[in-house]
Amino acid sequence: MAKKRVAVLISGRGSNMTALIEAAKAQDYPAEIALVISNRPAAPGLTRAREAGIATAIVDHAPFGADREAFERALDEELRAHRIDLLCLAGFMRVLTPWFVKRWQGRMLNIHPALLPQFKGLDTHRRALAAGVKEHGATVHFVVAEVDCGPIVAQERVPVLDSDTEQTLAARVLKAEHRIYPQALRALAEGRLSLTSSSEEKNAG
Ligand code: GRF
């Protein structure tokens, strides 16, 4: 079967993107990373992608101002130009409109640095430490219109140690992210996952 063509959307460092690129080097991996797009021109991940020989594009959100859909139409054009099948959000710091989410429904994953539904949103490690949880982790989920709410595809737990700082905890979670994202993308690319309306309802909120 032909490999699925995947685009990774980033805004920054791109370590999850790199994990996906590395995994996709395996011959039996069912997806190839065909494109990396950043909404931030200075994202360090762009350099890493170019060094890995991956096509890159910058779709800067700034010129579009408050017109989110215009930004997303530009994004969508790039994706279509590269005949992309599946999308992986990896540290992509833009909230997507229902229009875009619907367009890529069931074909778009996100990675979140917490055990969803716990700690949606930003600063997850700081909040996990403040809450005194004993376990924290990472989640890959389908993207739905509500942020960090889509059906869960993969999770990995990590312990929270008494000695942890935000940085040490983030580093432990990041290693888990790098393990589960390639696994989740594999499952999606092999057609072993699907987003049904009932799973959306069940997992909303
Ligand atoms: C990761 O922790 C990811 O879960 C979150 O943003 C961070 C991005 O890191 N959404 P990187 O750019 O993949 O290194």
Give your account of this protein's structure:
By secondary structure, the chain is an alpha/beta fold. Helices cover 37% and strands 21% of the residues. The chain is built from 7 helices and 7 strands, in the order E-H-E-H-E-H-E-H-E-H-E-E-H-H. The protein has helices at residues 15-23, 44-51, 68-81, 98-103, 124-131, 166-189, 197-203; strands at residues 4-10, 31-38, 56-58, 86-89, 108-112, 135-142, 152-159. The protein has a 7-stranded mixed β-sheet with strand order 3-2-1-4-5-6-7, sandwiched between helices. Helix 1 runs parallel beside helix 6. The radius of gyration is 16 Å and the shape is globular. Residues 10, 12-17, 45, 90-91, 111-113, 174, 177 line the site of 5-O-phosphono-beta-D-ribofuranosylamine.
